[in-house]
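Changelog entry: the Protein translocase subunit SecE record was regenerated in this release. Current contents:
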Amino acid sequence: MSQTTATDRPGGEPDEAPSGIFGRILLFLRQVLGELRKVHTPTRAELVQYVLVVLVFVAFMMALISVLDLGFGQLAMLVFGEGTIAN
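Regenerated structure tokens:
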């Protein structure tokens, strides 16, 4: 468990809220830069792996939804239509 309390301020940020619109903008920009420093850029191998995982997942979902759509379409034609889509 963490040994810090809710009143501890990591990073040495001031306790006072910035005054005015420009102070808030500067605080926002400092926080954005702080978060950007934490970003991990993936290696080429990681990037290729992530892209392949996404493509396989999208292809699987497309196939699943296509099969469900065809099945529900056939069911709707049997219930409401003339019996089959081919007619």
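Residues 44-80 form the longest helix (37 residues).
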